[in-house]
Amino acid sequence: MNYPSVFNLAWLIPLPTALAFFAIILFANPKKRLSSNIAIGAVVLAWIMSWAVAITFFLNPEITEHPFDLHVPWMPMGEITFHMGVAVDAVTAGMLFMVGFVLTMIFIYSSGYMSFPGHLDPKKYPDAAQEGLDPRYSRFFAYISLFATGMLGLVVADNLLMLFIFWEIMGLCSYLLIGFWFDKSYPDPKQITPKQAGLKAFLTTRVGDVLFMMGLIFLFIHAGDLNFQNIFANQEFLHELSTATVNLPFFGAVTWAGLISMLIFWGAIGKSAQFPLHVWLPDAMEGPTPVSALIHAATMVSAGVYLIVRMSPLFSAAAHGGSGVMMFVAFIGAFTALFSATIAVAQKDIKKVLAYSTISQLGYMFAALGIGAWVAAVIHLLIHAFFKALLFMASGSVIHGVEHGHHHVHEHGRGDDHGHEEYFDAQDMFNMGGLLKRMPITGWTFIIGGASLSAFPLVTAGFWSKDEILAHAWHGGHMAVFWTLAIAAFLTAFYTFRQIFLTFFGKPRTEAAEHAPESVRAMTWPLVGLAFFAIFGGFVAVPHDFPVVGGVASDFLAKLMEMQGEFYQLHVAPAPFNWTPALISMALALSGIVVAWLIYGMKPLAAGQPDPLRKALGPIYAILENKYYFDEFYHLVAVRPTLWLAGFFFKFDRGVIDRIVNWVGALGRWLAAALRKWIDEFIIDAAVNGAGLVTTWTGAVVRLIQTGQAQNYLLILLLSVVILLLLIPLG
Amino acid sequence: MTVPLSWYLIFATALFSLGFFAVLSRRNAVAVLMGVELMLNAVNVNLVAFWRYLTPADLSGQIFVVFVFTVAAAEAAVGLALMISIYRTRKTINIDEINDLKF
Q1: CA-based R_g, chain A, Å
Q2: Which residue in chain B has the smallest CA separation from A707?
Q3: What three-state secondary structure class fits A124?
Q4: CB–CB contact A714 B95 (8 Å)
Q5: DSSP per-residue string spanning A69-86
Q6: Which of A83, A152, A282, A405 has the most crowded Cβ, counting Cβ within 10 A?
Q7: Residue of chain B with shortest Cα separation from A703
């Protein structure tokens, strides 16, 4: 069929940011502002192209029946040729819509955020300090440009291998960006440094990636191709995979579809920081806040969800074949949602609360996927990206403000001198308070984002998307999932508003908070842009039967998703609207807000006052604050044995293998010396010299004949004649 | 009664041997040359004997002997001249002492 020609732009979408990466690294590194302008220009270009493709798609929804796929032969392998290309369908269009916009907002925000950092000495970097920018400003923009390429490429990829390649690009950029301030260290040796956090992130997601790769390889072995449309629109193939079994040692006979789905899901667990591979995301907050917003809220972690959505036909087939994969997905998702929400309640760092919140919300998405609510999961993914990025960026604005306030206070000669002897944590919420008056734009956008996260009824987008998931759970009879997510929703509202009350209301608890200025326009305008979507983005998710506002925007989306589902023969009809789950979720959200107000808002905390929850929960608070001691557990069970093993192999290599190698070398040297002494000198030289000696001796003997006396010669002549005469009768 | 050929041959052999012995054993160079003359004359006797007894009609035997005489005479003259020259240089004609062409 004839596709609108704008779809041919799809493969170009990841390109401008890739070019920006190379341009900055190779040419523009010394010029900071130029680098950020190149990056922002590139991402705006990518945004325009993404929206062009996405909006064209939304205007022509019938394309969903035959999604656009453009590919080229890339790797000939004997009989088959592997193709690489781009595909545009409903999910891709939705993701492009979100990713293009959020990336642009974050890039613009970063240009204002990456000022000269507090942990560096201005005397060592005079130029950067004078400009007021981070010394590695250009490098930052190079990295986030590469990351943008990764995300955009992942979203338009039409086959699993290409998706995996861009997945890994994002993993690399995550490592580089979390460890961006690699020279930062803390006085407390137990606190994780950015360098360690980057490694932790990479290694933990690596565990998931290995399993992902195994699943990918198995899939390729069975399918001979990894193109989504080719594999998943082929019903016989899916049926075959879901019936053929393989015998595994511990699990018995599992279907191939189940095994592959499970392995690929572990890749998503790693990337999206679900239990048990969740440990890297809170420590990833060591990276600059735009990184947290970009990678760990909006895009990279949602790649895991996107992956499962893409693989949904396989998961569905596996479930039909009797595999427990989808139940496992739902379990992990729901468990993580609740588990992580409980930890967020006891955190004091503003970014850590948001980190655990992200893990929890991703759990919601996986729970939705596990119960078959594909559409709800995708919608929640998109809406979450908007408000989470908003929350992170607003928190970054708050942190900047408090840091500026801190410097302001110290420059005015109050407190200790400019040596900053005591470490001041600008991210500790208990050092904040009353910031709404000082930073109104930041404050109000944060509140909007927080309300969306808490699923504040009706007016926020978050309400509609979360409600959709809960409605599906209720409708499908998955009560365990429903109640787990419901309790998590209560906690979400609670900890979010705890955060809001502690940060923005009451009186400032430190001098730094008293003097915190509002942030620059480059930082506040993106907040406003995202807040818009945090409120209005949800109307596509309003259920059809909802009174008054139902069906205004959502009929369109529902139809789109239905058609997409038909292509893959998936059941994606939205759940019919039911008042019960909707009221339950509204009640929980509001009660969470009310409890937070009772503890933190009614009587705002004074300076130095400890968290009231500490007394209320007693020993449980310490467990929550220490994240159930999971990091310590992993350290004991995984890190220390690995380090021991590495040490053991090192000692083995040095003590045993090197000894053997050196011994062989010594043996060789000894052999050479022996050969030289016994054979070369004794035999060969003897032979050579001996030949010479024999010749000399023979000559010395034979020349005695030549006496010089003629008579001797005549005598010899006589003798010779006689002998010859005697020999004649014989011869 | 005639003298048998073999007597002349034995006589020539003996003469030749004596001459050869003189060549080999005498220290004086002139004596060595005398030995050479003796050898040559012995050969002459041999030749004449063979001519007279085997082919008396053919004069080639006599002619050959005349040649040998002539050569012997010339060679003796040259040899003696060499000896005089050597004596003038070396002040000796002891052959044992004229051994420069040695190892």
Answers
A1: 37
A2: B102
A3: coil
A4: no
A5: EEEEEEEEETTEEEEEEE
A6: A152
A7: B103
**CB neighbours of A425 closer than 8 A, spacing ≥ 6?**
A349, A431
Cα–Cα distance, A633 to A605 (Å, whole number): 34
Tokens of A99: 């990713």
Q: Tokens 């010859």 identify what position? A: A724
Q: Read out DSSP for chain B?
A: -PPPHHHHHHHHHHHHHHHHHHHHH-SBHHHHHHHHHHHHHHHHHHHHHHHHHH-SS-THHHHHHHHHHHHHHHHHHHHHHHHHHHHHHHS--BGGG---S--
Sequence-distant (6+) residues with CB within 8 A of A446 are A390, A391, A394, A395, A398, A500, A503, A504
Task: Kindly report the number of other CB atoms within 10 A of residue A723's CB atom.
Answer: 9
**With an 8 Å Cβ cutoff, are B99 and A707 in contact?**
yes
* Separation CA A629–CA A127 (nearest Å): 43
Q: Does A708 touch chain B (CB under 8 A)?
A: yes
> Touching check for B93 and chain A: CB below 8 Å?
no
Q: Are strands A245-248 and A80-88 parallel, antiparallel or unpaired?
A: unpaired
Residue contacts between A and B (CB atoms, under 8 Å): 32
Inter-chain residue contact A706 with B103, CB threshold 8 Å? yes
CA–CA separation, A683 and A169 (whole Å): 67
Q: Which residue has the tokens 């308070």?
A: A433
ipTM: 0.86
User: pTM for this structure?
Assistant: 0.76
pLDDT-derived band at B65, boundaries 50, 70, 90 = very high
Q: Do the beta carbons of residue A498 and residue A412 sit within 8 Å? A: no
Give the tens place of pLDDT for each residue, A150-173.
999 999 998 899 999 999 999 999
A22 Cβ contact list (under 8 Å, min separation 6) = none
Nearest Cα neighbor of A74 from A185, A191, A159 is A159
Please name which of A352, A286, A334, A300 lies closest in space to residue A627, comparing C-alpha atoms.
A352
The answer to whether the beta carbons of residues A262 and A325 sit under 8 Å apart is yes
How many residues are given for chain B?
A: 103
Return d(Cα B13, Cα B3) in angstroms, integer.
Answer: 16
Confidence tier at A58 by pLDDT (50, 70, 90)? confident
| Beta strand A245-248 pairing with A252-255 | antiparallel
CA distance A381 to A486: 18
Record: contact B24-A703, CB cut-off 8 A = no
Residue A225 three-state SS: coil
Q: Is A706 on the interface with B (CB under 8 A)?
A: yes
List pLDDT tens digits, range A108-142.
Answer: 999 888 888 777 777 888 877 777 888 888 999 99
- What DSSP state is assigned to residue A191? S
Residue carrying structure tokens 């479930």: A319
Query: Are A704 and B20 a contacting pair at CB < 8 A?
Result: no
In chain B, the residue whose alpha carbon lies closest to the alpha carbon of A701 is B103
CB contact under 8 A, A711 and B101: no
